[in-house]
Amino acid sequence: MGGDYGPSVTVPAALAILERHQDIRLVLVGDEATLTQALKTAGAGTDNRLTLQPATQVVDMDEAPSQALRYKKDSSMRVAIDQVKSGNADACVSAGNTGALMATARYVLKTLPGIDRPAICTTIPCLGGRFRMLDLGANVDCTAEHLFQFAVMGSVLVEASGDSEQPRVGLLNLGEEEIKGNDQVKQAAQLLQDSDLHYVGYVEGDRMFKNIADLVVCDGFTGNVALKSSEGVAAMISQYLREEFQRNLLTRAAAVVALPVLRALRRRLDPRNYNGASLLGLRGVVVKSHGGADQTAFEQALEKGVFEAREAIPHRIDERLGEVFAGERPA
Amino acid sequence: MGGDYGPSVTVPAALAILERHQDIRLVLVGDEATLTQALKTAGAGTDNRLTLQPATQVVDMDEAPSQALRYKKDSSMRVAIDQVKSGNADACVSAGNTGALMATARYVLKTLPGIDRPAICTTIPCLGGRFRMLDLGANVDCTAEHLFQFAVMGSVLVEASGDSEQPRVGLLNLGEEEIKGNDQVKQAAQLLQDSDLHYVGYVEGDRMFKNIADLVVCDGFTGNVALKSSEGVAAMISQYLREEFQRNLLTRAAAVVALPVLRALRRRLDPRNYNGASLLGLRGVVVKSHGGADQTAFEQALEKGVFEAREAIPHRIDERLGEVFAGERPA
Fold it and tell me: Is residue A327's pLDDT more than 70?
């Protein structure tokens, strides 16, 4: 029910995914009448792989997480996460309020043993490839131990994705020399150096786009600012490009000629292809779609949910944590 | 003497500035033989507005600031800052080691009363304009009071530049709702709200490129990551654009047609036009040029030095601090 467009986007995307993967089941959670209508509008037939799970409430996009947790026990978000908890679903995908989703998922599903806090991880394009980055906003302040846990969780996700068998792990910092950074980052560097992760050192904001790490680890404040700044610059350049091509008759003619090239560029950088952030560290799969996702983008988020459920990412993270902490794992 | 190219870039840029501003004097600081040769190569005649100040040492680009401060007392950097201290120069412009420049400037010139730490401030393009951002890396950890001091200093610079009479001051944060952010940011928001600065609230990384603030304030860690991430994305898009236009004969033909448009875009975003970061909070003008600056870029940094000396920015910041702290200013 969540996101800026609600079921008009999520329902058609769900139907497309169901069609694409013949071995999955899909549970739509939300207001029954609205969902039934959305299914009708989308021209859905009866399908025993598709079920409806009613929920009478909706968490607002700007609602405080604590409010949602307390007063919205029958929200589509809460009921969807409950489905994962009860084992009726293997993944929950939502375009709703990020803070409320994180708080509810953490409350209902709990974190894995050894994980203090879940983190938000997403995929970002870079020269000749892509990398993953976490945390992107769940944790404003992080200790070195948190950053280390993020590195373990993110590495498992990169490995499962097939991008790298030994993911290169970098720590986001304001310089690449050893003396640079705050205490948390310096201590996290030590923890990573002493671990069996493939730690490649500090990574600066510009260098992460040069394909020097498969995983960039940072606190949620810095990660959020870095990701959004990147999106902001890309949007500005795109707007400037449009303006320059619309300047006069000559530039408009040039635009027509350059159109296939500009389209190819757009395809390469289309944020919709990267939609879907993983909430890692929970005892279950939860994927957050961008609130403004259209159908194509929401399908990508659903694909991530399918992928993480198939690969049993939480279980694999749990196993890896067992190895990392070798019997000394905190509960 | 500093930067990646040394006098082969800085000397021709200095001569160009001297030509452009008939009322300024210029002191070139560094190895006498090297500078004399560079002047000769650049075809400089005798000019009583141009003097040479010998310095026998050079601070390396990767030298630790503490080392530079201790063992390089006759470096071009130190001697140039000494020129400002003694009153023989009104501004120091350097393309050298940022950390060493900041440490030396702070040691020699001292901070203004009421300023705990100097900060690095630069100009960044945004939709339909530009904004300034500080700190960009001088201060890894900042208290709310530091952030507030940055806001005061940055506001003076924006006002003097003529961009805005009442600069809109925003705090960089991972959300725009009041509950978002870490303790320092939340407390700084309170200080700004209670001040007579034109505080416009929290600014997210993407929104700062939409021209919603004239000044974006943050700690040096976050600011550095945000700025470099932005530069990294812009470089990646530029590289992708080149690749797409070079893909085949057709796209190469399109590139020829689109060339004037692409050139116009480049002009609008050319980082060389924004070169030169101000070290604010000192009792003197110090401007840091990008180490990789070419002549055009270094001229911009020199222009900033001329501007800040003419506008007596340190004096204006000092006056404003007097108003802000109204008699209760710490020494």
Answer: no
